[in-house]
Design brief:
7-stranded mixed sheet, 4-stranded antiparallel sheet, mainly beta
Amino acid sequence: QVQLVESGGGLVQAGGSLRLNCAPSRRTYRDYAMGWFRQAPGKERDFVAAISWSSGSTYYADSVKGRFTISRDNAENTVYLQMNSLKAEDTAVYYCAYGFRYGSRDVDDFGSWGQGTQVTVAS
């Protein structure tokens, strides 16, 4: 099974920026969407953003719209999450995953989860 590897997390001050990266452990066909989720301690894993590999169309959670941008590099087989104007409430472990149904925000419609990368926003 292909595993996704996230990187780019860290500690940042409120108002700052980070860029997360997500790449598969090996190359595979890319007929799926890719999504980012996040999970804060004691909370459920929540949808953040997703992108279609083929069309590049995107959709976002309302809480991050206008601040976060998801993009993909087909040549590098990598998906990015640019996070700007970070807030303390963005603190969480961020995960990427393959999406089986474009347009879904349901965690059950995503799979091959990575290990996650910690994002901490200091207020």
